[in-house]
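Hi V.,

You were right to ask for the full record rather than a summary. Here it is.
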Amino acid sequence: MKIITQDNHQTKCLSAKSMQFFQQYRIARILHAANANKIKGIPAMQIFLLAVSIVFQHRSLYMQMNLHQDTLLFSKDTFYRFMNSCHTNWRKFTTLLVSSIIRRSIEPLTDEKRRNVLIIDDSIFSRSRSKKVELLAKVFDHAHGLYTFGFRMLTLGWSDGNTFLPVSHCLLSTANQKNRINESSAKIDPRTNGGKQRKLAQLKATDVVLKLLRETKTAGISAQHVLFDTWFCAPASLTAIKDIGFDVIAMAKKTSKIHYRYQGKMQDVKAIYQQNTKRRGRAKYLLSVEAEAVKDDKAIPVRFVYVHNRNRRKDYLVLVTTDMSLGEEEIISLYGRRWGIEVFFKICKSYLHLSKDCRSISYDAMTAHVAVVFTRYMLLAVEQRESQDLRSIGELFYLSIDELPDLQFLEALHLILLEFAALVQKNCLLSEQAVQLMLESFLQELPSLWSENLPKCA
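Predicted structure:
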């Protein structure tokens, strides 16, 4: 006896939203450009649509196949062959999709002077109970302070300060052969996208980052700065990223092993800090100095900004940037956008089933799974942007609102009017009806775009 399916209103809405997202950004064309094609049979877009939308229906692939045998036009073997394909370039797919979202939905709503950033970080893709997974490695989990089996999911994201979008990724194994539990499959042709991805996974993280940045630059994704934590911050990486065409804002390491040229001498950031007078009081930063990052007789100017450590009063943190045109407060503000990638990792692991839905031992399937999770997050990010930014309704709001603020202008105006009405009713001893008439008269004098949409902010 089969379970009776329940196609409720929420499920239908989610299906419609997913299809609208796929059609709006022409994901079928992007899949074709990334070589995700089927020579015959079911189109790749239908299979990929199921992979993306299944998480929003709280069902596994098995249950979805069992409950919808009549409506689904393909079997589970077709789905697994699609995910295990070594011909699809999933890095290119996510990069092209992000480029389309930025061009179609975000750039029209954003001021040209706004600074966009790229964010680099990694998170553990755990496969702790696995033994036969391709390129499985012993990696250190900084969150729990112990070693585990899995991969480092190196992620490159884009942000304008309001919306974060994952651009590209690589499931890093390890460059140290001693820490690799398994090697890559000998059946995969190294000339295919799967073979190239496996080779990339065995390089050092610093080399992979530079490749991801070059691919992003080639795709035409607009960004001025690259943000990352201390693990990647060194003079070599600063000069290499500068050569690609991006400026860096990063957290510098407070170690005696990394030196910068300051006043003609090679010194570490702690020695530079001790030689200068700090700002007193409750200043937003303690010290700002200019130095040079030197690598292979090549030097580029950098600025260090020393700030208070909120967790330790007597300690400090060091920010470094290669953009000398930025002020100290602007450097601190831009680096704060790096938190967006931490929220992204949390959402993917807690809600979008990152690594939970993938039990395959194939490296291609795991790479495809990460691309699917990235697409799920993009769908949610676009939906959030359109529900919060009033200008995404259409071009009607371009004249009245300049840019998405932290607090919506109409929402703030609505709250002010409510407080004003309560104050007038209390102090002037007017009836509620009289105050309501005053507010209606005031609203009629406002521009029509404001008066028509103000009640929606309640």
